[in-house]
Write a structure and sequence with these properties.
This protein is an all-beta fold. It contains no helices and 28 strands. It is 0% helix and 57% strand.
């Protein structure tokens, strides 16, 4: 088994970042050994890697147009070669997902109120826009004046796509066919003013966990695999009651064994750890760990699940933690790894 894992960073390019970066993480030395720009792109804030590791998709901006770009991944060096991009007038999306056979890519757009599906060619390049779903609505928070789509991703069986709307406190389930067409099936309403941001599934596919940005909470949801509907089981605060400054909830990930859920807090600058009750799938708080950087926009568990790497946007740094797989707790191993304007981090599968 290799000791080095290859990952990719999405970033803003407003100051010194060049675009998409490649990182190498040495699990023997427990440190990031290399951060190298591999694709010049404007504001590729979110990236995702295909299951077969052949392609990377990045949100991108070209002048007054926004869309996504497709790259092939060199299987030896990890370098990226741009295949093509599809853009339209307006702001770029903020999230991108790809299905397991790499035939459909979906994006969520915070500014345009839309989720969009794209069909791909056999080499992973983008073929065409397949469908667009536009949302309406608002919420009680000052940032909820209109829909703000923050996540679009597939159900474990890929029958459905979920659109998470921070602006109107809704998670919409769409059936999606092989042509990438959406059919609206169900709307789950999160607590008013919570601002749902990202969603992740338990490995059993029967439960999902949602991080809310505005209320800094974790929601545990029961998932109906037949209908695509959610029901809420639990609502837990992700920051201490004593913390009264601004906090924006960020990313949420579950360990591959389904035993722990991790969430990011921007402002409190922490990763909150929760243990999953294996009988009820409800969460129990374990600890907060400071991220040693400012504004942890995203984080990722390494493919072997032994480490967790945080991307701190405002300090432009990465932080490496070792993860105790029995208790879920995190131990600092490396801090202040320079990564300009970093937003998102993903590893090859």
């Amino acid at each position: 088994m290799t000791n080095t894992f290859t990952g990719y960073l999405g970033s803003y390019t407003k100051e010194e970042s060049k675009g998409v970066y490649r990182i190498n993480f040495d699990s023997e030395q427990v440190k990031i050994t290399d951060v190298t720009p591999v694709a010049e792109l404007n504001n590729p804030t979110y990236v995702t890697v295909s299951v077969n590791n052949q392609n990377l998709y990045a949100v991108s901006q070209a002048g007054d147009q926004g869309g996504i770009a497709a790259f092939s991944i060199d299987q030896v060096s990890g370098d990226l070669t741009k295949l093509n991009s599809l853009t339209e007038a307006g702001s770029p999306p903020c999230h991108v997902s790809v299905n397991q056979d790499n035939s459909i890519v979906v994006t969520a757009n915070y500014h345009t109120k839309q989720i969009v599906s794209y069909l791909t060619n056999s080499d992973g390049s983008l073929r065409a826009v397949a469908d667009i779903a536009e949302h309406e609505g608002s919420g009680p928070h000052e940032r909820q004046e209109k829909p703000h789509m923050h996540y679009a991703g597939f159900s474990p069986d890929e029958k459905y796509v979920f659109a998470v709307d921070l602006g109107s406190d809704e998670i919409t389930t769409y059936a999606i066919d092989q042509q990438g067409k959406f059919t609206k099936k169900h709307v789950f309403e999160t607590p008013a003013g919570s601002g749902p941001r990202h969603l992740t599934f338990a490995p059993n596919g029967e439960y999902a966990y949602v991080m809310t940005e505005l209320s800094s909470e974790v929601l545990t949801l029961k998932y109906d695999q037949e209908t695509g509907a959610f029901t809420q089981l639990q609502q837990l605060k992700a920051i201490p009651d004593t913390f009264t400054d601004v906090n924006d909830g960020s990313a949420i990930h579950v360990s591959s064994d389904g035993k722990f859920v991790y969430v990011g807090n921007r402002g409190h600058n922490s990763i909150a750890v929760f243990k999953v009750d294996q009988n009820t799938n409800e969460l129990e708080f374990v600890e907060w760990t400071g991220t040693e950087g400012d504004w942890p926009r995203d984080f990722v568990l390494t493919p072997d699940q032994k480490y967790l790497i945080v991307s701190n946007q405002k300090s432009g740094t990465l932080t490496v933690f070792e993860r105790d797989q029995a208790t879920g707790t995190l131990t600092l191993k490396q801090a202040d790894v320079k990564a300009p304007e970093v937003v998102c981090v993903k590893f090859l599968n």
